[in-house]
Amino acid sequence: MIRVNQDDYAYAAGRIRAREIKLLDKSRFDRMLESPDAEEAYKVLAEAEYGMGSESTKNVLEFDALLADEMRKTYAFLSEIAPDKEVIKAFKRRYDFFNVKVLLKAELSNQEIPPILVETGTYSAAEIVRIIRERDYDALFPVMREAIAEVYDVFSRTRDPQAIDLILDKALYRRFYEDLKSIENDFVKELADVIADTTNIKMFARARVLNRQITFIRNILIDGGKIDKSVYFSNSEKSVGEFINEIAGTGIGAEMLKSVKVSEKGNIQALEKALDDYIMKYIQRAKMVTIGIEPLIAFLFAKETEIKNVRIILTGKINKLPNDLIRERLRLIYV
């Protein structure tokens, strides 16, 4: 259990408020969108002091490296000011799962490791590579160790690469939920349930679009959240739209019915945007907190959403998508 003294966060909250004014606001996103090409949109990030000054990220086609640098810079800042370092580690562990997933996929498909490993986790990229290559799993935390063993077991029997994603994603959210629930703060504990519910809805929708049945659905849902698992099971043969109508009485269901058009209920991209926006609306409650852990957690989510939006814009610009199409995919921002 991580005991949080809200008063200990006075200095951190002050630093966060000063840094929040540098977050990309609507006018900057509009400038990126209205830019004539991806190169011009990319220049807005330079003005916003994105990245860590590496020369290798000057080219717009290298934007993934720039965004990875920006996320690493954000975690370095939060780790510097957070009174409880374990709070930050709870969020960083998600990137450990990402790196392990990349490594297992490469190994099990006999491919070279792609250059997309990130340095934002609790282990360095080099250390994770060593652990996987040397099978030194005792160096990992138990949930990840168990997930890796399950991946090898299931893949050896099924040869299904989708199993790697499913097993590691489920393990990631299980650990993330447990980590958030271990932080003694009502805002964070409720956030854990918000994330569990939105994750389960997303998993359920993907499964139904693929016409997967109840046995599969039982296996992918994570524990926690306010929506009982029996609701998913009893709707396991219905369409995504019918399921959303079924959960209309919940906060998430009502929000999706309001923000997603009837014709889009089976559209995974539209649903995922609605779920991300629901999380952000919850996070925005932190604006009312002067001193405490809430501003720190909110800044992290604000930055992650900002980076997701930057990626959507740059990818759209590079692929010459219409601005209206790019705009409707953008997530709700914090500022």
**Total number of beta strands:** 0
Oligomer: single chain
Structural class by secondary-structure content:
mainly alpha
Sheet having the most strands? none
Dominant shape: globular
Order of helices and strands: HHHHHHHHHHHHHHHH
Q: Return the average pLDDT rounded to an integer.
A: 93
Number of domains: 1
Distance between the termini: 31 Å
* Helicity level: 55-70%
Roughly what fraction of the amino acids lie in strands? Answer: under 5%
Calculate Rg over CA atoms. Answer: 20 Å
Number of helices: 16
Q: Can you tell me the residue ranges where pLDDT is under 50 for at least 5 consecutive residues?
A: none
How would you explain this protein's 3D organization?
It contains 16 helices and no strands. With 335 residues, the chain is an all-alpha fold. The protein has one domain (1-326). α5 (85-108) runs parallel beside α7, α5 (85-108) runs antiparallel to α8 and α9 packs antiparallel against α14. The radius of gyration is 20 Å and the shape is globular. The mean pLDDT is 93.
Quickly list its features.
335 residues, 66% helix, globular, mainly alpha
Short overview:
The protein is mainly α and 335 residues long.
Write the layout of secondary structure elements.
Layout: H1 10-20, H2 26-34, H3 38-47, H4 63-81, H5 85-108, H6 125-134, H7 142-158, H8 162-181, H9 186-209, H10 214-220, H11 229-234, H12 240-246, H13 251-259, H14 268-283, H15 294-318, H16 323-329
Helix pairs in contact: 1-15, 2-3, 4-15, 5-6, 5-7, 5-8, 7-8, 8-9, 9-14, 13-14, 15-16
Family: Belongs to the V-ATPase V0D/AC39 subunit family.
InterPro entries: ATPase_csu/dsu_sf, ATPase_V0-cplx_csu/dsu, V-ATPase_V0D/AC39_subunit, V-type_ATPase_csu/dsu, V-type_ATPase_csu/dsu_dom_3
Protein name: V-type ATP synthase subunit C
